[in-house]
Specification:
This is DUF3445 domain-containing protein. InterPro entries: HODM_asu-like (IPR021848). It holds the Pfam family HODM_asu-like. By secondary structure, this protein is of the alpha+beta class. The chain has one domain. 27% of the residues lie in helices and 19% in strands. It has a 7-stranded antiparallel sheet with strand order 1-8-9-10-6-7-2. Strands 3-4-5 form a 3-stranded antiparallel sheet, with helices on one face. A hairpin with a 5-residue loop joins strand 3 and strand 4. Helix 11 packs antiparallel against helix 13. It starts with 20 loop residues before the first helix and ends in a 36-residue tail after the last helix. The C terminus is likely disordered. The structure holds protoporphyrin IX containing FE. Protoporphyrin IX containing FE binds next to strand 6, strand 7, helix 7 and strand 8.
């Protein structure tokens, strides 16, 4: 299926971003119920239905070209957003191989990988959307323009973290992190699973991280897993890093009843985990999807459900996720989509067509009030 890339989108300064109707319908809505609480929501990362974000190992969509450009802009001013400790060299090559093989297999019209030479180490990679062709020797970093992890993740959507498995624990020993929800690779580099999860409220007491770590230590090569996480972001901004907090933090105070539908975005992370074959490291990928409330509410079930989730969300989670400044405004705006009727379980949109876009006042007249 061909993808209509939108190279002129911008995720900073003068924001220019929107989802097509097809992108709204395939959005990974994260709430199977009307309430939300942390859980060990891990499932096999098997290939899903065409038309979903689970079809490919690494999902590519209409924002691909613009997101790669945004990453390049971030790296220009902030090279430490990509760092790898020395002992993770093999894991870098494992990652390059996994991503190239998967993208070439899942999107043959856009990406190609050829392996030549007596030992099969002479590779040629073609990336049509970005207009790149690169011949190199697999395992020889001098034949690439930059280190293998940086090379391939500059051509992928989402963040990538390399985890070393030792002492029955996982250590964050490398990564490319430019689209994160307020955490820092530079700060977390070298930390263990419990250490980097330290700031998360309620989940430690519920034993969630203990169970998740046990599960991940047994992760097998060839059997990746996935989970969804979510937060909210003012403006369609990918780089909500602590390093740049002064540029985006104050926006949290800018939400009003008039602008909330267009300005506030649900930010969903599709997190996938792959055991890497040579290094025995784990690759943790965080693919970020943004949707404005205006767009989201065009699926009636989603508008209604998000209203209920925000209404019942525990205060500790709202504080940790940084939603407290605008939660009430969002909840009141979303109330117009909630008729109080029961919702069906599961995340499916249950519509083939979207409701029409909202009018200029960002409201639809059916269920007024809060
Ligand atoms: C092993 C790969 C993983 C990495 C590298 C990772 C990394 C992170 C980081 C950096 C944060 C932000 C912490 C902060 O505030 O500074 C976070 C939050 C969190 N992580 Fe993980 N994580 C991983 C796996 C998991 C798994 C398997 C679970 C399953 C339960 C999980 C559950 C959570 C939760 C619930 C939060 C809070 C998110 C929120 O409320 O927005 N993580 N993780």
């Amino acid at each position: 299926m061909s993808i209509a890339f939108k190279p002129d989108e911008s995720f900073r300064d003068v924001y220019q971003y929107r989802n097509s109707e097809a992108a709204i319908l395939r959005f990974p809505f994260p709430f199977p119920e009307d309430r939300y609480m942390y859980s060990v929501n891990i499932e096999p990362h098997t290939s899903g239905e065409p038309g979903t974000v689970f079809r490919a190992a690494f999902d590519i969509d209409e924002h691909y070209v613009a997101e790669c450009r945004d990453r390049a802009l971030t790296l220009e001013t902030d090279p430490l957003r990509c760092q790898v400790l020395d002992h993770m060299d093999t894991a870098q090559w494992d990652t390059l191989e996994l991503v190239m093989e998967s993208m070439a297999r899942d999107y043959p019209e856009y990406f190609q990988l050829e392996r030549d030479g007596a030992e099969g180490t002479q590779w040629t990679w073609t990336n049509r959307p970005l207009g790149l062709t690169q011949s190199f020797v697999f395992g020889d970093a001098d034949t690439l323009p930059c280190a293998p992890l940086e090379y391939i993740t500059r051509q992928a959507q989402g963040d990538f973290v390399l985890l070393d498995h030792r002492d029955d624990n996982l250590f964050m020993d490398g990564g490319m992190v430019t689209t994160q929800a307020d955490w820092s690779l530079d700060f977390d580099l070298g930390m263990s699973f419990m250490e980097w999860h330290g700031p998360v409220p309620l989940a430690h007491q519920a034993g969630i991280f203990e169970r998740a770590l046990k599960f991940l230590l047994r992760l097998q090569s060839g059997a990746p897993v996935r989970r969804l996480n979510w937060t909210m972001t003012v403006n369609p901004r990918l780089d909500t890093s602590p390093e740049h907090y002064p540029e985006w933090g104050p926006d949290r105070a800018s939400i009003t009843p008039e602008n909330v539908g267009g300005k506030l975005h649900l930010r969903v992370e599709l997190q996938t985990l792959f055991r890497l074959p040579r290094s025995n490291a784990i690759l943790f990928c965080v693919r970020c999807y943004l949707i404005s409330l205006d767009e989201l509410a065009r699926v009636p079930k989603w508008g209604k459900r998000l209203h209920r989730v925000l209404t019942t969300l525990p205060q500790e989670l709202a504080e940790y996720k940084g939603l407290v400044r605008y939660r009430d405004t969002a909840r009141q705006w979303l109330a117009q989509f909630d008729d109080g009727a029961p919702t069906t379980p599961g995340t499916l949109a249950e519509v083939e067509r979207l409701s029409p876009p909202l009018d200029e006042s960002h409201t639809r007249p059916s269920f007024a009030g809060s």
